């Protein structure tokens, strides 16, 4: 049995490539890195990697993390600028005996020393998004923050080994140096090959209040299915935040156990995720809610898929 699951439709191309690798016997780490890099390299996905949305100073600061479910080794970078494929830097850091999480200038020095590609990650499209948002905020008094779609993935190879990874440019118009949940162990990601793994996307400042990725793995270890664990962790913490703080930010998590079973739970409309297993081709699912608030999954239609790409690749005009 093998499988891979990821947050958001933007992971589909990478998942498709990784699915074939896993079918051909590739290990979980190579397949996972390939899948995440595909998202990082595509400039039209404006919340990850190249073309990621900038901070308030119009700089692209990226966060990424890596975890090996066999050894529990972790590597992470945060607020790193001008380097392509931060997930690969995080994977390299996971092999170090210490200094496994590096931020800002320290992460950049490490990347340079180890030969990673230096690249200006700010695209012309991202500049247009920035200038348009600045005008909207000034004219309409809108809050600048929006667009925080982390790509998070968990995979399982034929040997029963697992890995997890995340990559994001974080909140659009965030303060310089802001770091969310994505590179934080237990919050943005967690995986244990003896149990399973989970990753998160949403409002990092709320996600890391609950360490939801670890909580889902803990619940799976107690015997819950990935779906049961996701629903319990997200549902319970959504209630906690509303009780303690009056509201809850976006919380969306996906999970897979070491049997290849998977699950997803969210507290928002419009969340999508991608799954591929031995018995399921790479498929995009949309999370829906019935009249009683119970969530269910629906395979994305051809029309939805076509509109998704049209929207993201449409020409932009500076307002």
Determine Rg (CA atoms, Å): 18 Å
| Order of helical and strand elements | EHHEEHEHHEEEEHHHEEEEEH
Bulk shape: globular
Poorly predicted ranges: none
Count of DSSP strands? 13
Q: Please write the CATH class name.
A: Alpha Beta
Helix content: 25-40%
Count of the domains: 1
* Biggest sheet layout: 9 strands, mixed
Read across the widest sheet, the strand sequence of neighbours is: 4-3-2-6-5-1-11-12-13
Distance from N terminus to C terminus (CA atoms, Å) equals 51 Å
CATH topology: Glutamine Phosphoribosylpyrophosphate, subunit 1, domain 1
Count of individual helical segments: 9
Mean of residue pLDDT values: 96
CATH architecture: 4-Layer Sandwich
Summarize the structure.
With 319 residues, the protein is of the alpha+beta class. Helix content is 34%, strand content 25%. It has nine helices and 13 strands.
Explain what you see.
By secondary structure, this protein is of the alpha+beta class. The protein has one domain: Glutamine Phosphoribosylpyrophosphate, subunit 1, domain 1. Helix content is 34%, strand content 25%. The protein contains nine helices and 13 strands. A nine-stranded mixed sheet has the order 4-3-2-6-5-1-11-12-13. Strand 12 and strand 13 form a beta hairpin.
């Amino acid at each position: 049995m093998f499988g891979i699951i990821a947050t958001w439709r933007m992971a589909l191309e990478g998942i498709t490539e990784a699915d074939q690798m896993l079918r051909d016997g590739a290990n979980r780490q190579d397949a996972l890195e390939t899948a995440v890099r595909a998202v990082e390299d595509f400039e039209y996905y404006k919340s990850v990697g190249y073309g990621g949305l900038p901070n308030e100073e119009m700089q692209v600061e990226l966060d990424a993390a890596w975890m090996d479910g066999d050894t529990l080794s972790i590597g992470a970078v945060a607020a790193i600028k001008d380097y392509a494929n931060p997930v690969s830097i995080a994977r390299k850091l996971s092999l170090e005996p210490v200094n496994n999480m590096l931020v800002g200038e320290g992460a950049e020095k490490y990347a340079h020393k180890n030969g990673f590609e230096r690249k200006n990650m700010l695209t012309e499209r991202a500049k247009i998004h920035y200038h348009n948002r600045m005008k909207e905020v000034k004219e309409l008094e809108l809050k600048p923050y929006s667009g925080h779609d982390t790509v998070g993935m968990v995979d399982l190879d034929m040997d029963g080994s697992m890995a997890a990874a995340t990559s994001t440019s974080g909140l659009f118009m965030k303060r310089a140096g802001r770091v969310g949940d994505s590179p934080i162990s237990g919050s943005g990601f967690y995986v244990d090959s003896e149990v399973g793994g989970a990753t998160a996307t949403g409002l990092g400042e709320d996600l890391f209040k609950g360490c939801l990725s670890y909580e889902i793995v803990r619940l799976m270890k107690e015997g819950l299915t990935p779906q049961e664990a996701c629903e319990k962790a997200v549902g319970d913490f959504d209630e906690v935040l509303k009780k303690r703080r009056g509201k809850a930010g976006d919380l969306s998590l996906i999970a897979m156990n070491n049997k290849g079973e998977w699950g997803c739970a969210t507290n928002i409309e419009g969340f999508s995720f991608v799954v591929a297993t031995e018995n399921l081709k790479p498929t995009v699912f949309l999370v829906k809610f019935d009249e009683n608030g119970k969530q269910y999954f629906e395979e994305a239609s051809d029309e939805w898929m076509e509109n998704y790409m049209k929207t993201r690749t449409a020409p932009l005009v500076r307002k």
